[in-house]
Amino acid sequence: MGSALAEPKGPRPAARKLALAGTILVVGLGSVGLRHLRNLRALGQTELAAHHTGLGTLPADDAHVPVYTDLASALAARPVAVVVANPTALHLPTALAAARAGAHVFIEKPLSHAALDVSALRTEVERRNLVAQVGFQFRYHPTLRRVKAWLLDGAIGRVVSAHAQWSQWLGAWHPWEDYRRSYSARRSLGGGVIHTLCHPFDYLRWLLGEVDFVSAQAGGMGGLELDVEDTAVVTLGLRSGALASIYLDYVGRPPVHRLEIVGRDGRICWDGESGVARLFPGRDGSRSAAVRPPAGYDRNQMFVAEMRRFLERIRIADADPESLVDGIRALEIALASHRSAETAERVFL
Hints:
Elements: E1 24-27, H1 31-42, E2 48-51, E3 67-68, H2 71-76, E4 81-84, H3 91-100, E5 104-108, H4 118-128, E6 132-135, H5 142-152, E7 159-167, H6 193-196, H7 199-208, E8 211-219, E9 231-238, E10 243-249, E11 256-263, E12 266-271, E13 277-281, E14 289-291, H8 300-315, H9 322-343, E15 347-348
Parallel strand pairs: 1-2, 1-4, 2-3, 4-5, 5-6, 7-10
Antiparallel strand pairs: 7-11, 8-9, 8-15, 9-10, 11-12, 12-13, 13-14
Helix pairs in contact: 1-8, 3-4, 7-9
């Protein structure tokens, strides 16, 4: 393999204007809520509002939009769509209230920390023909999409195993606050690595197919003074017969986020920190390849891309429940991981 890295083919994502008629309400003004507000503006949305309880660690003034302190009042104003970006434990109640008010819903991952009201939300959005989308932004990463293309092309043959690792010290996430106060660190708000770092549950399903069973171990080994697990090792038995392992922690420094997929005819490696994806075919070395994100690529482009997709789906009335189902499946894997860690038994889905 040469040292040169190729860029993925195709146009670089642009903040094409997709403004909707009506107001988009962002619920939650933490870092991701403010990110979504900025990205909605970049996509041309001028009618914006926010709901803020005042319990977060960032000031509502940073939103620069009308701010409601009462969710019922915010929904009574009939927003066309609601972006749910509050703590995990509040995702489902907020999304369900928004759907019952007739609003399309974009829900930050994870969908929830519990199964309660999941079926009610799905019933409500399908009955009202609403767009419901869960925020798994790594599906929009350009080189992870290239990994999927390699797999679809059979570049490494039948997949045998995969390993994902996400290790990042919790204290570095929001340096402006005591990490012990963050939703990621508190059981009452749906925290813990299994729910908070659930992206690999989603992108492994997206890349490799459905999951049949889950086996997991988890605990608080990091000395972080939390009431949730800070470390977890999860094994997924895939319907294809392949096995996938996922290692998550709130402890590691420097941060690591990577994926390795082994096939009968080669190997694929993806580095989430650098964005570089590499293909190592075992039988035909001429197909070796490496790709990197486009020059100047910023991780926020994943968030812009997923929000663009949400707005496009509303404009064309695409109420396909697939994205909501993806969120439900990732939640099922997370809940099965907790159950397996508690019972020391394999949990079948």
